[in-house]
Write a structure and sequence with these properties.
Blueprint lengths: L2 H11 L10 E3 L5 H5 L3 H6 L1 H14 L4 E3 L10 H4 L4 E5 L2 E6 L20 H19 L6 E5 L1 H9 L1 H10 L1 H26 L5 E5 L8 H17 L6 E6 L10 H4 L3 E4 L5 H8 L4 E6 L10 H15 L4 E5 L9 H19 L1
Parallel strand pairs: 1-2, 5-6, 6-7, 7-8, 8-9, 9-10
Antiparallel strand pairs: 3-4
Length: 350
């Protein structure tokens, strides 16, 4: 993103009054290679191709704030790989993660992790260092560091099904695994911030597995750890939380955890979210990303976008899809969202 876009995003995230609703989209390797017609493996491994691909997207949509800006990622490989998960790569798809912690008690045998030297964390940090000057030289900044959340990481390492069972049957061991993952995430975010430098003023946490548990389990197994992550960084930093699974169990607690922005899924209507946390957290959403964003016509996308904006009243919202930009979302549908936003913002000015 450009520096002025980050200033706009910060104001919106802090619920300051702004003249126009901004638009932001989460973009990463599930969407970019397919959109540009390049193989995933080339996108991941060809440094020059990666740079040109991201530059093309930014130049094609100069009015969209891309989160977290130029994202150096290998699908969801980095966090679980540092704890021994098997990662399988595909020519035309994002990597798959396979758990290796077959007995949760074996976490006591894990070697200490080193984020700057382990698996895809080490590779990602090296690539970030390689690309940094080119990105900044093109006039862009990277103000946000990014990580999968503690439950998401634990689920990849243990397997989501076994991890859900552990929460019920072996809660003390589940806590040990989540605690380990939380420490890893904090160190991972700090390692990224160290490379990117003083421009970093925000963190972005993605954890859909929080949507798989009930409210009591959220309070015990998720909230303290999410709060610990937020508390590990300066109070004035922007903290963004993504969860496009069910958010009902966690929704009321996210502002207290320390998050400024919520990007959530299609399951919960924006009007209901506003009723519960409006005025406490900025809402980044919530156009249906698949049935509308990918499969809908531009007219359907425009109507759905206007519905989200009208329900929001134009305050406390950053327009986006309900989650990340889904693979296959076409240009005409992105333009339809922008057209609807321009139309809505015109009514705000009046």
């Amino acid at each position: 993103m450009k520096p002025h876009q980050w200033e706009t995003y910060k104001k919106a995230a802090r619920l300051e009054k702004i003249d126009k609703v901004p638009m932001a989209m989460i973009i990463d390797s599930p969407w970019i290679p397919g959109y540009l017609g390049i193989p995933h493996m080339d996108y991941y491994l060809d440094s020059e191709l990666w740079f040109k691909a991201n530059l093309k997207i930014h130049e094609e949509y100069p009015d969209i704030i891309f989160i977290p800006s130029w994202w150096m990622e290998y699908g969801m490989a980095a966090e679980p790989s540092a704890l021994g998960a098997k990662i399988k790569f595909w020519e035309d798809n994002t990597p798959s993660e396979y758990h290796t912690l077959y007995n949760i008690e074996d976490i006591e045998k894990f070697p200490e992790y080193e984020v700057e030297n382990d698996a895809f964390m080490a590779m990602t940090l090296h690539r970030m260092k390689m690309e940094k000057q080119k990105i900044h030289g093109a006039g862009y900044i990277q103000p946000i560091v990014t990580a999968r959340g503690p439950l998401c990481t634990a689920g990849f390492v243990r397997s989501t099904t076994d991890f859900m069972i552990d929460i019920v049957e072996k809660p003390e061991w589940a806590h040990k695994l989540i605690d380990l993952c939380t420490n890893l995430i904090i160190d991972w975010l700090k390692a990224q911030a160290k490379i990117l430098g003083d421009q970093v003023e925000g963190i972005f946490i993605l954890d859909d597995i929080v949507g798989f548990i009930n409210e009591d389990h959220y309070q015990e197994f998720a909230h303290p750890y999410l709060k610990r992550i937020c508390d590990a960084f300066p109070k004035d930093w922007i903290k963004i939380y993504h969860n496009d699974a069910d958010i009902n169990a966690c929704l009321d607690y996210l502002p207290e955890a320390g998050f400024n922005v919520l990007n959530w899924g299609k399951q919960t209507d924006i009007a209901d979210v506003i009723d519960r946390v409006g005025g406490k957290i900025c809402l980044m959403g919530n156009v249906n990303p698949l049935e509308i964003g990918v499969r809908g016509t531009p007219e359907e996308v425009k109507d759905a976008t206007l519905e989200v904006l009208e329900k929001s009243g134009g305050q406390g919202i950053i327009l986006s899809v309900g989650g990340g930009t889904s693979p296959g979302m076409p240009r005409e549908n992105i333009l339809a969202m922008q057209e609807a936003l321009e139309e809505f913002n015109t009514t705000l000015i009046k």
